[in-house]
TrEMBL record:
The chain crosses the membrane at residues 112-131. This is Bacteriophage protein. Pfam families: Phage_TAC_15 (PF21822). Keywords: Membrane, Transmembrane, Transmembrane helix. InterPro entries: Phage_chap_TAC_15-like. It comes from the Bacteria.
């Protein structure tokens, strides 16, 4: 079971994507990684993401803008694949929120106000170390624009 969050009155568990899913999601979100960096930085170490609506709106705007720039197929792949790693607590146990094969939500009450934060959570949980590595390598690399000597 992954990290649990409360969102929209329901409890969700953020799970792991397979290595191949991580690869394909990262390929598709690569053009929007610069827009996702502020989201990643704002969520790092935040256990209450999704409870602060103002902060949530600010954090989700870069993702929404980035997804808007993707081809429909790529945006659908990213959202569907990310949601396939999410489960929702039910009285009888945990249930997946996305049927990967049918490409559909399993809960009618889920809207973009719940879907986008879940997608962000999955991206940060699964690609966060990769994004962190990019930030660290950029911060520690020498300035290529500075001429030698």
């Amino acid at each position: 079971m992954g990290r649990e969050i409360q969102l929209g009155g329901s409890q969700y568990s953020i799970g792991r994507l397979s290595a191949m899913q991580q690869l394909h999601v990262s390929r598709r979100v690569a053009p929007i990684v610069p827009a996702l960096i502020p989201v990643f930085l704002s969520m790092r170490g935040s256990a209450t993401f999704g409870e602060n609506l103002e902060g949530l709106a600010d954090a989700l705007q870069p993702l929404a803008d980035g997804l808007a720039g993707l081809k429909d197929e790529d945006a659908e792949y990213v959202v569907g694949t990310c949601l396939s790693a999410v489960q929702r607590q039910q009285p009888t146990g945990w249930a997946r929120v996305w049927a990967l094969e049918q490409k559909r939500l399993m809960f009618e009450d889920m809207d973009m106000g719940v879907i986008l934060p879940l997608v962000v959570q999955v991206i940060v949980a699964n690609l966060g170390p990769f994004i962190q590595g990019l930030l660290t390598s950029q911060a520690s690399s020498p300035d290529l624009a500075t001429p030698a000597g």
